[in-house]
Batch of 2 targets.
Target 1
Amino acid sequence: AQSVTQLDSQVPVFEEAPVELRCNYSSSVSVYLFWYVQYPNQGLQLLLKYLSGSTLVKGINGFEAEFNKSQTSFHLRKPSVHISDTAEYFCAVQTGANNLFFGTGTRLTVIP
Amino acid sequence: DGGITQSPKYLFRKEGQNVTLSCEQNLNHDAMYWYRQDPGQGLRLIYYSQIVNDFQKGDIAEGYSVSREKKESFPLTVTSAQKNPTAFYLCASSIRRRTGSGYTFGSGTRLTVV
């Protein structure tokens, strides 16, 4: 069975500062990893995904994530955040063509 | 443009009434999903369907029902048996049996029971 842990439920950060949102997973088989963003009262939008190849994945809105197999992590980073990045971020794992498993989310609040 | 449409955006119902949430997709996806979202609890899977006329219970199916008569549509009925139905409901779809396909989400329906 697989699971996803998002270690921080809330992350406040000042505007233009860097941010890292942490995600760890557990699985006995190979995984595909995703980050989704949810703005208030909206659905989830795909930020980026790791399927194979380069472990550094670049996504939309300047976000990137690095897959670390030995540490079973897939942390999301942005070098300089904007007010518009305030949202909830979900990490998800998929094995093969099975259902996605989602973490409980991290609420990023960017402070002016 | 292809996508998933959930309607209505906001829904108010009296306690004890059944209510049906609509989810339609034109992505030609085989699989569809319903999630419930409550503050601080992430996404919880209610029901999913991998193919027309077939569906499976998720983690919190009690008090809900679904149908999948058409590939494009996967309506969710919140019945009077659901003890705490006020929540944000999300519908999603995916390509069946494609590894690493991920999901496409609708914009959600916020249900408030008074």
Note: The interface with chain A takes residues 4, 6, 33, 40-43, 45, 48, 88, 90, 92, 96-108, 110 of chain B (CB under 8 Å).
Target 2
Amino acid sequence: DQQVKQNSPSLSVQEGRISILNCDYTNSMFDYFLWYKKYPAEGPTFLISISSIKDKNEDGRFTVFLNKSAKHLSLHIVPSQPGDSAVYFCAASRSLNAGNNRKLIWGLGTSLAVNP
Amino acid sequence: KAGVTQTPRYLIKTRGQQVTLSCSPISGHRSVSWYQQTPGQGLQFLFEYFSETQRNKGNFPGRFSGRQFSNSRSEMNVSTLELGDSALYLCASSWGRRIYNEQFFGPGTRLTVL
């Protein structure tokens, strides 16, 4: 049973437009969320994170929004660039305060293609 | 600063064999985590080592084991290989154990079991 779901396996957008990648989770105990980007033949690279005490975190062109009541988060990329073409993974974890449960639970990823 | 390195990059084995994968973390990093990535399951956590001790373990059978050396380098071993073990095995290192730290991933070892 996937606790972290990325329901869109792929997304295609035009260069300069906004890319919105979505992620849903089922475990209400998750309180820390991360986005990773992965190019072919490379490992995932940390992109941006958000704690459950916030509903938005911004870093340059990347913004993550968290809606705890809906158990939903999204990654916005504005403006999208061809170099952003990659697979994006959403990951979630429980707080360290919940015990020795530091595992990250990952979604299956969304492949983003930004067309010039 | 050199990144996380994993050796070998590609490996082909047959069912029943055993395999050892190696991971060298970024200099100064003491935490090493291992993940298995398959198309259908995504990234699944295998285990985490910190200061030569296994601190956390995922839901994998005992055929999967690992260890960490005093220089923080880590190895994982899979015994009695099955076809379903074919996957990309990723290693990630971080300075500390807090999840808020960034994890830096290596390029992975692609294991194919025939």
Note: Chain A touches chain B at residues 2, 32, 41-46, 49, 89, 91, 93, 96, 100-109 (CB under 8 Å).
